[in-house]
Amino acid sequence: MKYMLLIHMNTEIWDTLSEADRQEVFQGHTDFIDLITKSGELLSTEPLCAPSHTTTVRIRNNTPAITDGPYLETKEYFCGYYLIDCDTKPRALALATMIPDAKYTAIEVRPLMTPTAPAL
């Protein structure tokens, strides 16, 4: 089963971390990528730029409305993901606990829609 592990960032928390804590998070990602690459569970992973680089596109009355910035102004935002393929949901949850950001913010574990996955 494929799962997306969505990493959320809270800039108020991140801004209070020491440089050593930040380096620990970065090294934790390197170690985690190595682990799930070796296990064959990693499909892809990418970090995202900060919300200040976002453009939001909407169609209203058949007219595009394009605005700079994220859809919602929040303290937490989606900052990256791991797309994994593992045997069970408990394994996906166990992997999510290994993502270093979980120590400071949230990791959302969401199955991908497939013929055997839960419906909308």
Automatic annotation (TrEMBL):
Occurrences of domain YCII-related (ranges): 1-113
Pfam short name (any one): YCII
Transmembrane segments: none
Family affiliation: Belongs to the YciI family.
Protein's name in the database: YciI family protein
Source organism (scientific name): Sphaerisporangium aureirubrum
